[in-house]
Design a protein that fits this description.
This protein is α/β, with parallel strands linked by helices. Helix content is 32%, strand content 20%. The structure holds NADP nicotinamide-adenine-dinucleotide phosphate.
């Protein structure tokens, strides 16, 4: 049994980590403000704001493993200063957004990074740069005792970005009466890691004292195959109306995430490597991911429990999709 401290631990991935550590029989403490949700069962809770001086005053003693999901460099700087000297292994959840370029499939961890940014402003514009700064604080404080896991697209039940649930749900509940669904005609790949597999591996690796900087994602496969898997779990037999990326751009459909987007689609060639990174180092450290269909089945079940008509953070609304289908097919009437 190890003493685990999860900085965060009340939102999505951090919560999975805390729950997994409890299941694995470890003694788990989570530190959070209490704004993102209730703590998982079976953990000790420390309420603290990492922006305040003395945030770590209540987490005394020694820690075998600290897991941190922060995006703010000052939070990481403060945490490694206060806790680093009395922690065995520091597990930092980083992101493949730290890389300067995303056009090369198969790129390893040695690929060039963005310049670090110490800003604490939350926002996607500086996300990668802030994660670079966070990584640097961790590696400077615990050079031989840190596991920096650069996650790619994290998916599964509870995906707060609404990306990984979009496709299975849309195939299960098409926006159209004839069952047709608008999809990107693209050679881009996906590389999803199930949040539960990632969490289990982070806990195992932390407890074993693993260290290094690794890309932590699942297998790479063409988006078309990912969509085929989503159709199978949803039982979709309607038509796929495939449109090229130029058409999507002309019709103001955003890639990746957010409103009026087709989630997980990214333009090529500039993003041909974004979800095609070399993950062999993580596999050597024992990262194992379940079959994609299992993730998609579970995320669909979760989506259906949330309610298929709820407002979403990512994707096309049914009315946007119907209107785009009319244009894509050159039809007069809504399908
Ligand atoms: N989604 C993806 O596809 C993806 C891809 C690559 C990497 N990642 C990384 O994966 C991780 C996701 O983590 P997550 O799902 O657990 O979500 P998160 O939203 O990053 O969770 C933040 C956690 O930190 C706590 N927190 C935030 N501000 C705090 C403060 N000032 N003081 C104390 N605690 C604070 C929150 O609890 P309170 O609000 O209650 O304080 C919450 O528990 C992140 O590191 C992200 O960068 C995500």
């Amino acid at each position: 049994m190890a003493r685990f401290l999860v900085l965060g631990g009340t939102a999505w991935l951090g919560r999975e980590v805390a729950e997994e550590a409890v299941r694995a029989g470890h003694e788990v403490t989570v530190l959070a403000r209490g704004e993102s949700g209730p703590p998982p069962a079976g953990v000790r809770v420390v309420r603290a704001d990492r922006s305040s001086p003395g945030a770590y005053a209540e987490v005394d003693g020694e820690w075998d493993v600290v897991v941190d999901v922060a995006r703010q460099p000052s939070h990481v700087r403060g945490a490694v200063a206060a806790l680093g000297p009395r922690t065995g292994t520091w597990v930092f959840v980083s992101s493949c957004s730290v890389y300067a370029g995303h056009d090369q499939p198969g790129a390893a961890e040695s690929a060039p990074l963005l310049p670090p940014s110490e800003t604490d402003e939350d926002g996607f514009e500086t996300y990668g740069e802030r994660k670079v700064a966070c990584e640097q604080h961790v590696l400077a404080a615990l050079p031989d005792r840190a596991l920096v896991a650069r996650a790619g697209l994290i998916g599964g039940p509870g995906d707060v970005s609404d990306r990984t649930g979009y496709w299975p749900l849309r195939f299960a509940h098409p926006a159209t009466t004839d069952g047709s669904v608008l999809v990107p005609d693209s050679t881009v790949t996906t590389q999803l890691v199930d949040s539960r597999d990632l969490a289990a591996w982070l806990v195992r690796s932390g407890a074993q004292g693993a260290n290094g900087v690794v890309n932590a994602s699942g297998p790479t496969l063409p988006l078309a195959e990912h969509l085929a898997a989503a159709r199978r779990v949803a039982g979709h037999e309607g038509e796929l109306v495939a449109v090229p990326q130029e058409w999507l751009a002309e019709h103001s459909v955003a890639p990746w995430s957010g409103e009026r987007s087709l989630p997980m689609w990214l333009p090529v060639p500039e993003y041909a490597g974004f979800m095609a990174r070399d993950t062999s180092a993580a596999q050597t450290l024992g990262l194992v991911t379940r079959p994609l269909e299992d993730t998609l089945e579970d995320v669909l079940e979760w989506e259906l429990r949330q309610g298929p008509g709820r407002p979403r953070r990512a994707g096309l609304s049914p009315s946007e999709e119907r209107e785009l289908l009319v244009r894509a097919r050159g039809d007069e009437d809504l399908p």
